[in-house]
Design goal:
Blueprint: E1 13-16, E2 23-27, E3 43-48, E4 54-60, E5 62-65, E6 68-72, E7 82-90, E8 93-103, H1 110-114, H2 122-140, E9 147-154, E10 160-162, E11 168-176, E12 179-180, E13 189-191, E14 196-198, E15 206-213, H3 220-236, E16 247-250, E17 253-256, H4 269-277
Helix pairs in contact: 2-3, 3-4
Length: 286
């Protein structure tokens, strides 16, 4: 059976582990999708870790404007790689849920991309960095920044698990049919690069496993490719050309445009050549 998670793999805000002033950030919308909804009461936030532990209940929030709100974490709360689920409540009424990932590093820094697009706002730079990181990690099936995820699998009873995240740094938690196990007693053997986790014990019919994964930093050519892709995405949104345009002619001649597709995630030839050079095949067990 395929791996299952209770949260989306992509589209989460990334927060650097150990930040001095970490905050969860969300854009709230009304029933029609318009920003800055009218609130009936006081907005608070309840925060839950990936393993189901409630970190905070009804924590106060701050409005940034334009429908954007933040909720502060302590440095200690952001010290461990994790995935946080934030439920935003208007009084006692839940109105939106957002996902937030505590990571060990970033694919590139904001100053690096700001040099390429000086007039972009911080919000635009942060958003495009998260989007490009998601795109590259999905295309390469590899985590380029230290991260954490919990996955549930069914049908494995032979003591071997295929992690959907690579490379595997460590196994933090294991549960068989909902019963937590002592990881140190499982005699784990990890093939980090392949994402294979071997266990001396049977994994039962339903295994839940928490894995820290990812490289400390991405290689320089992949970072450069990510920066080019981020610049292109920021500038393309300002272009007057139709998204359907396949070429443009001017005093410099005719230029042809490529399009994103399978094996060509950004539509930029020089960028996609680098990205797909790091792509890894999915390993299965027959």
């Amino acid at each position: 059976m395929p791996n299952e998670t209770s949260y989306p793999r992509e589209g989460m805000q990334r927060i650097r582990r150990g930040s001095a002033v970490p905050v969860l950030r969300v854009s709230l919308f009304d029933q029609d999708g318009n920003a800055a909804p009218t609130l009936a009461g006081t907005l608070t936030c309840t925060i839950t870790r990936a393993d189901g532990t409630v970190m905070a209940t009804a924590r106060s929030t701050t409005t940034v404007g334009g429908g954007v709100y933040t909720c502060a974490l302590t440095t200690t709360e952001a010290q461990t790689l994790d995935v946080l689920s934030a439920q935003w409540l208007d009084g006692a009424n839940p109105i939106q849920t957002s996902g937030h990932r505590i990571v060990g590093s970033f694919l590139f820094t904001l100053p690096e991309v700001r040099v390429l697009v000086p007039d972009a706002t911080d919000a635009q730079l942060i958003a495009v960095r998260d989007q490009i990181t998601d795109l590259i990690e999905t295309a390469t099936r590899t985590s380029w920044c230290p991260s954490y995820d919990i996955t549930s699998t069914r049908g494995y009873g032979r003591g071997c698990v295929v992690s959907p995240w690579r490379p595997v740094r460590s196994v933090r938690s294991v549960a068989f049919d909902g019963v937590a196990q002592v990881v140190a007693n499982l005699d784990l053997d990890i093939d980090a690069a392949a994402g294979l986790i071997y266990m001396s014990s049977s994994t039962s019919d339903h295994l839940t496993i928490g894995v820290e994964h990812g490289f400390d930093n991405a290689p320089s050519d992949l970072r450069d490719a990510a920066l080019i892709a981020a610049k292109d995405r920021l500038l393309r949104r300002r272009s007057a050309l139709s998204d359907r345009s396949r070429s443009v002619s001017d005093d410099m001649g005719t230029r042809l445009f490529s399009y994103a597709g399978k094996g060509h995630p950004t539509g930029l030839d020089e960028v996609d050549a680098v990205i797909m050079g790091y792509a890894r095949p999915v390993i299965g067990i027959g």
